[in-house]
Write a structure and sequence with these properties.
By secondary structure, this protein is α/β, with parallel strands linked by helices. Helices cover 33% and strands 15% of the residues. Strands 3-4-5-6-7-8-9 form a seven-stranded mixed β-sheet, with helices on both faces. Helix 5 packs parallel to helix 6. It is globular and about 85 Å long. The chain starts with 39 loop residues before the first helix and ends in a 13-residue tail after the last helix. The structure holds zinc ion. Zinc ion binds next to loops.
């Protein structure tokens, strides 16, 4: 049986060595270098409009633009999504009236904390991803007709944890409010004290409350707004000593988390435990105000609380009760 076989005829052009030099062997691999992918930030800019987010409560797909216009509240079930400090300030204050204080204050790694990542590298990465220097923004602004001292926390920065910068910025804000005789609003969201700073973060609980005591002595009003979640060292200090304490719907508010409490007490926790609604029923907070009604409601509260101060400058009527 005849077979045909093809043999490659040399053309005289082949070289015994490959014409292209293979990449040098490094780290035991010969893979070519991967092309650089665009960074997350630039990719986000390139995404066209038409992005949807699934609501974690009612599972409806919500158009992102609609969500933004609705102040990050689900239009169907009113679930309140987390909102950044800058967006919140934008939603509450009169345009261009926010004069930020201590904008450049940053934490230092005083304990030389090392873990999976060092504290310094954590700070750097959060500063990059959030555009904030720390977990709170403070400043003087106009809320409706009221000149007000406003502090707003951001959970996106290291879980809104209170380190020395958060404590110091808030203390300076409270002291400025006392000095200028201004009402004070602090909008809290926090996982508690910042463990990377050890005792320095715990000290902030006493420091902020001491400044608030002077503010109260001057008979100036302080409204504390609790948003999801406000827990631990923050809830155990300045967040819980407002003349008025109001919360957003569904916010989780407490000291220790429900799992820890359940394990410690070995008791079944009641339904809705540690939610704003539960705490309103039990008298810890004064009101629940949806995000979209927050600004008019705060203006109304400030109208009441500063009525005496506006009338003939009588200091007695500035706050209903000293803290
Ligand atoms: Zn929803």
């Amino acid at each position: 049986m005849a077979t045909t076989s093809f043999t490659k005829k040399p053309l005289g052009l082949e070289t015994p060595e490959p014409a292209v030099t293979p990449p040098p062997v490094a780290n035991g691999t010969t893979f070519a270098k991967k092309p650089k992918l665009p960074s997350r930030k630039s990719r986000k800019r390139d995404i066209p409009e038409g992005l949807w987010t699934k609501c974690p409560k009612c599972e409806t797909m919500v158009f992102d633009k609609e969500l933004d216009e609705n102040l990050k509240v689900c239009p169907r079930c009113q679930h309140h999504y987390p909102i950044g400090a800058r967006e919140r300030i934008h939603s509450l204050v009169e345009t261009c009236t926010f004069e930020e204080m201590d904008a450049e204050m940053t934490s230092v790694d005083v304990l030389g904390f090392t873990g999976v990542a060092s504290y310094t590298s954590k700070l750097e990465s959060y500063q990059k991803s959030t555009g904030l220097k720390d977990a709170v923004l403070t400043g003087i602004c106009n809320v409706g007709p009221h000149r007000t001292a406003l502090g707003v926390m951001d959970f996106g920065f290291l879980g809104g944890s209170m380190g020395s910068v958060v404590g110091e910025k808030l203390t300076r804000l409270i002291e400025r409010a006392t000095e200028k005789e201004l009402p004070l609003i602090i909008i809290s969201t926090s996982g508690g004290a910042r463990m990377y700073e050890g005792m320095f973060s715990l000290m902030q609980m006493a420091k902020t409350c001491a400044a608030l005591a002077y503010h109260a002595q001057a008979r100036l009003p302080y409204i504390s707004v609790l948003t999801h979640p406000t827990t631990a060292g923050v809830m155990a200090s300045y967040a819980s000593v407002g003349d008025l304490i109001i919360a957003e719907p569904g916010a989780m508010i407490g000291f220790a988390g429900p799992r820890v409490i359940k394990d410690t007490t070995q008791a079944e926790l009641p339904p809705g435990f540690q939610t704003a609604e539960f705490l309103l029923d039990h008298g810890l907070i004064d009101a629940i105000v949806p995000r979209k009604e927050m600004k008019p409601q705060l203006i109304e509260y400030l109208d009441y609380l500063t009525a005496g101060a506006r009338r003939n400058g009588e200091p007695e009527a500035r706050t209903p009760q000293p803290r």
